[in-house]
Design brief:
The complex is a heterodimer of chains A (about 180) and B (about 625). Chain A is built from eight helices and no strands. Chain A is mainly alpha-helical and about 180 residues long. In chain A, helix 4 packs across helix 5, helix 5 packs antiparallel against helix 8 and helix 7 packs antiparallel against helix 8. The longest helix of chain A has 29 residues. Chain A is globular, with a radius of gyration of 20 Å. In chain B, the strands form seven sheets. In chain B, strands 1, 2, 3, 4, 11 and 12 form a six-stranded mixed β-sheet that branches. In chain B, strands 18-13-14-15-19 form a five-stranded mixed β-sheet. The radius of gyration of chain B is 26 Å and the shape is globular. Classes of the chains: A mainly alpha (about 180), B alpha+beta (about 625).
């Protein structure tokens, strides 16, 4: 008999029966998530004892966490690199290539400028361009992990993408502020 | 919902084992109770067959309390002691409440939550709400002929932790076993979705008496997945009344009003608003206690003009919810309208224009939430019939964060995370030998603590003394399926469980609930002791049934020794459960619950493994 704790603690990919890769079949992920929730969700155990309700909450929390990480490409890559022993250490390691940094500073300047004059159209433009740029970054990330197994490069890309995702959120917030 | 109830092995559907469960829509203006009978959800009416119970509570000077229509008819006579729209005060401080100046109540600033001074002393909104719930409980128990096993109570999706906790406390005070707090738009989606076999992405636009919610849901193969939710927990039909009220005062150039006159005018304002749903204009004629006369005509055009900003205020959260779900209005298959205020023609038009489609009005906007709650209650109580295996995945409406240096919020759990959800965060000490620290938990989307709603200051005590920065305290924030937060902490280097006061300041603890019960809350000659004993016995019976059913299915998961222990716990509980020693029953239940913990964990494991095994078979087929 497998130990209970180890099943609850198994990694996100194993929990959903998925291979450890950056590429994930979204349809399978969603189906497995729903099937597992159908078994473990607190609503299915609401009429049972405190112990069982607590257990259901733990399991459902676990399934939600795994689903959340796996459906988001950046979180998925970050998590997968950690499993492979190449944690990008986003908190500590802030070293980035110079050209990337300069590019980011330009982006940021443009966003600040558009924000300052509430130029929604310019912000929409920047938003589209940034997303286009990031699309290429994500493609490179997939190749680095699944094809060339260059995890050091992949960790670099994860750190850069975190930077970019943050900027993207800032543009979204600015657009929202203009609309309101 | 299945019309025929066919029992599956191990799932009883025999009529005598049907557990009495109801759904309660605890509304700002009106409340309802509904149940599932013979596979059909239905609202339970009062002795006159009226489905709605006005959410009005009157405290009489000579003692005694009336709830509902009788209290409503007295509101202009005794406004100070007749509480309407109490839901607006749940989990709220005085400064959070709009239009305080025009309300006839004697407010008392309470700890974390405003209170009201009445003939019968100071009452918290929790106690007032409990009176409404108690009236609904009595209605349901009379109609169904027995004690309720459990209830599902609906709350606005946009209710924060304080408002949810207050609702749950009110239910406990009314002697109800809460199976789940269910979000109102989600309840409506269940009722609508199951009734119409709906598949696809739907929006639920829910404008009630005092709250506004917008939820975006994906309905697919029996799964109701909330993608995002938004709203305003202080925006509803009451605000439209308030606008009309202000308009009357302005037009009639009235002097400051007595509480009686204010209440009278508000009632007239509401009647005028309701008239406009079917007519082009509404006359407002009234003689006030002050001797002043009002004789005005409110037209649709004026009403639309003075309430335009309120309608606009519902569209901003709607846009935000769609953006959070990553969707555009064109991708929404249908818009389900919920709440009495959606009858207003200009709301219908604004929603229709925004989504470029006719809103769905083929269900009663007053009843649909209660019906959905009843269906959910029936399922949660364990009255599951074949075909009832749908699943609900809901979200947390507001981000949870903690205060960091300089009053900045660090988000711990982002809004629209599927619940239950947990996040852990590590903290350290900044002084040598520090044994305690406090954490400020806030809810909201803003960056500054002062702009968010403060939920609680958690005190962590019992940290082992170490040099500054050496302790590593892991704090876990858990939001359960009711959307309620709990916090636990552990010092990592020593494994020492730090004591944490998890009770937010606005919640009631067991002692307070007990004191309120003793304080004569149960004025209806309800024997609280017998009731609690009966509840424990029902609970014990349920636990035994569940254990036996599990043993029948999965006895192979236990060794002979383990099985012997479980059997012994069951026998012990059976021997004490019919007696009147409440403590002995609780102890035996506790022992059985602990004795089956490992068994339960293995069963859960097994069910997940079976899902994975199905996946493996499928992979081999490829």
């Amino acid at each position: 008999m497998t130990s209970v704790d180890s099943t609850l603690a198994q990694d996100h990919f194993t929990l959903f029966g998925l291979p450890r890769s950056f590429a994930v079949d979204g349809e399978v992920l969603e189906r497995m998530y729903r099937e597992i929730q159908a078994q473990v969700h607190p609503d299915k155990h609401a009429h049972l004892s405190d112990t069982q309700r607590r257990l259901a909450m733990q399991w459902a929390t676990r399934a939600n966490e795994a689903h959340q990480v796996l459906k988001n490409p950046l979180q998925r890559a970050h998590y997968l690199l950690g499993l492979l022993g190449f944690d990008p250490q986003v908190e500590r390691n802030t070293a980035m290539p110079m050209d990337f940094l300069i590019e980011q500073m330009d982006w940021r300047e443009a966003v600040e400028k558009a924000k300052g004059v509430s130029d929604g159209e310019e912000l929409e433009n920047l938003y589209r361009n940034l997303r286009q740029d990031m699309k290429g970054q994500y493609e490179a990330l997939g190749l680095a992990i699944d094809d060339s197994h260059d995890y050091v490069r992949a960790a670099d890309l994860v750190r850069q993408l975190m930077f970019q995702e943050k900027l993207l959120t800032e543009i979204e917030d600015a657009l929202e502020a203009i609309e309101a | 919902m299945a019309l025929l109830q066919i029992a599956e092995p191990g799932q009883s559907a025999a009529p005598h084992e049907h557990r009495l469960a109801v759904g309660i829509d605890l509304g700002t203006t009106n409340s309802l109770v509904a149940t599932v009978r013979s596979g059909m959800a239905a609202v339970l009416g009062d002795e006159l067959g009226r489905p709605l119970l006005p959410s009005v509570v009157r405290y009489h000077p000579e003692g005694g309390v009336t709830v509902g229509f009788d209290a409503l008819s007295q509101q202009a006579v005794d406004p100070r002691n007749t509480i309407v729209s109490v839901k607006r005060f749940m989990g709220r401080g005085l400064k959070d409440i709009a239009h305080v100046e025009s309300m006839p109540y004697a407010f008392v600033e309470g700890e974390g939550m405003v209170k009201l001074r009445t003939h019968q002393g100071v009452k918290s909104p929790v106690e007032v709400s409990a009176e409404i719930l108690q009236a609904l409980r009595e209605r349901a128990e009379n109609a169904l002929g027995g004690q309720l096993t459990g209830v599902v109570i609906t709350v606005p999706a946009y209710f924060d932790d304080a408002q949810r906790q207050a609702t749950k406390d009110a239910a406990r005070l009314a002697g109800l076993n809460v199976l789940r707090l269910l979000n109102e738009p989600t309840a409506a989606a269940i009722a609508y979705g199951l009734d119409n076999g709906a598949e696809g992405i739907y929006a639920v636009y829910d404008l009630g008496g005092g709250t506004f919610d917008i939820s975006i849901l994906k309905l697919s193969q029996g799964v109701f997945q909330v993608l995002s939710t938004g709203g305003d927990s202080a925006l509803g039909g009451d605000d439209f009344d308030q606008r009309v009220f202000c308009w009357i005062i302005e037009q009639a150039k009235l002097t400051p009003l007595s509480p009686q006159d204010a209440r009278l005018l508000l009632t007239k304002a509401r009647e005028a608003k309701e008239t406009l749903t079917f007519h082009g204009e509404a006359p407002i004629t009234v003689k006030l206690g002050s001797g002043e006369y009002v004789d005005l005509t409110l037209t649709t055009a004026i009403f639309a003009e003075i309430t335009k900003t309120l309608v606009q205020k519902t569209l901003a959260p709607t846009r935000k919810a769609l953006r959070d779900a990553g969707l555009t209005p064109e991708e929404i298959k249908g818009v389900v309208m919920v709440g009495g205020s959606t009858r207003l023609p200009q709301i219908q038009k604004a929603v229709g224009d925004y989504f470029s489609q006719e809103p769905l009005n083929n269900l009663d906007p007053d009843k649909v939430v209660a019906l959905g709650a009843a269906i959910q209650a029936n399922l949660l109580a364990g009255n599951r019939a074949a075909g009832d295996d749908w699943l609900l995945l809901d979200v947390i409406p507001l981000s949870l964060g903690i205060e960091t240096m300089g009053g900045i919020v660090e988000k711990i759990i982002p809004r629209n995370s599927t619940i239950p959800v947990a996040r852990a965060q590590e903290f350290t000490t900044f002084k040598d030998g520090q044994t305690a620290m406090s954490l400020q938990v806030v809810q909201g989307e803003r960056e500054l603590v002062s702009d968010c709603r403060s939920l609680a200051r958690f005190e962590l005590r019992g940290i082992p003394p170490m040099v500054a920065g050496a302790a590593r305290i892991r704090v876990t924030f858990q939001v359960d399926a009711d959307g309620l937060l709990s916090v636990s902490a552990r010092e990592q280097t020593t494994g020492h469980e730090a004591h944490i006061e998890v009770k937010p300041s606005y919640g009631l603890n067991d002692d307070e609930i007990a004191a309120m019960l003793k304080d004569g809350f149960n004025h209806a000659a309800d024997d609280a002791f017998r009731r609690a004993l009966r509840e424990a016995q029902v609970e014990a019976q349920r636990l035994i049934e569940a254990t036996q059913s599990a043993l029948k299915d999965d006895a192979n998961l236990l060794s002979i020794l383990e099985r012997g222990h479980v059997d012994m716990c069951v026998a012990k509980l059976q021997s004490v459960m019919m007696g009147d020693d409440r403590r002995a029953i609780d102890n035996a239940m506790d022992a059985l619950s602990k004795g089956t913990a490992e068994f339960a964990a293995r069963r859960m494991n097994q069910s997940v493994q079976r899902v994975l095994a199905g996946r493996n078979v499928e992979q081999m087929d490829l």
